[in-house]
């Protein structure tokens, strides 16, 4: 694996690990799943395949961020607008 791709993979892993702290099923569950996925793909040598996997990981990061923003929005909406509905 080229050094630049290795750096991208490590950076992706670190970012996903950081985002996994607030995962709904728990940080340990997320960390275990993340590690299994990365270990499953550790023998991939083709740079194009590695780039595809990095893109998939970045998509997962965006989905996690969206999940967290939605959860935060729902909590704020419930907190501030519960008097109006109830």
Automatic annotation (TrEMBL):
* Biological processes per GO annotation: negative regulation of oxidative phosphorylation; respiratory electron transport chain
In what residue span(s) does the Complex 1 LYR protein domain sit? 8-61
Task: Give the protein family.
Answer: Belongs to the complex I LYR family.
**What is the scientific name of the source organism?**
Ictidomys tridecemlineatus
The Gene Ontology CC terms held by the record are: mitochondrion
| GO function term, MF aspect, one | enzyme inhibitor activity
Q: What is this protein called?
A: Electron transfer flavoprotein regulatory factor 1
Q: What is the lineage of its organism?
A: Eukaryota, Metazoa, Chordata, Craniata, Vertebrata
InterPro entries assigned to the protein according to its UniProt record, in alphabetical order: Complex1_LYR_dom, Complex1_LYR_ETFRF1_LYRM5, ETFRF1
Coiled coil ranges (UniProt) are none
Q: Pfam families annotated for this entry? A: Complex1_LYR
């Amino acid at each position: 694996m080229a050094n630049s791709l290795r750096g991208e993979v490590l950076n992706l892993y670190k970012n996903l690990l950081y985002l996994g702290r607030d995962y709904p099923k728990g940080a340990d569950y997320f960390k275990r799943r993340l590690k299994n996925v990365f270990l499953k793909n550790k023998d991939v040598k083709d740079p194009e395949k590695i780039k595809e996997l990095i893109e998939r990981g970045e998509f997962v990061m965006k989905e996690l961020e969206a999940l967290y923003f939605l959860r935060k929005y729902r909590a704020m909406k419930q907190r501030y607008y519960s008097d109006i509905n109830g």
